[in-house]
Amino acid sequence: MQEIRxxxxxxxxxxxxxxxxxSIEAFxxxxxxxxxxxxxxxxxSEIYSNLEKGQISEKGFxxxxxxxxxxxxxxxxxRRAWDAVLLDMxxxxxxxxxxxxxxxxxxxxxxxxxxHYGTYNGAFRLRYGHxxxxxxxxxxxxxxxxxRKPSPTTFQWVLNDAGLEASETLFIDDTxxxxxxxxxAGIKGFHLHNTELxxxxxxxxxxxxxx
Length: 211
What we know:
CATH class of the largest domain: Alpha Beta
CATH architecture of the largest domain: 3-Layer(aba) Sandwich
Number of domains: 2
Number of strands: 5
Helix content: 40-55%
């Protein structure tokens, strides 16, 4: 088996704990999305995709929510509801990254948006004194690169940009379709489902799973 030299991590659900239900409940408290289908349709909408690809502004996003919901909530209330999904980043995962990067080239690839990025990176900087992405050789945020998972094109672009061999690269994500997209691009994929990230590595930060 080809030796793993590079690891690409997902962020939310892998390094950062998230809870979509908290955000749903926060929006419903504002009178938005009383019908659960609202959130299903929203997650599949062009506006959501555009937000994650950096193609719509924060204010434009809030205005869209007001238009489709008919609720005239303030930008600040909408931001708080949107950010409610974000939970904590356990210390043991932060310490793990410090160890893993001693053995592998490590990268981040996340479908996210500028609103969430500002919130969790600001909290991390306040706690640790530096940006979260400094742990990685390079962090690829969808809203900055204009591409999203699970498109194999996105993974191929990252491989080319970072100068990585797909066969030597492992991608870890909690969403199966994202892992499948990576595999189409020739990357080894691990679906982190009901599993703690730290359990994939030994105490020194080296992989201990069989791919």
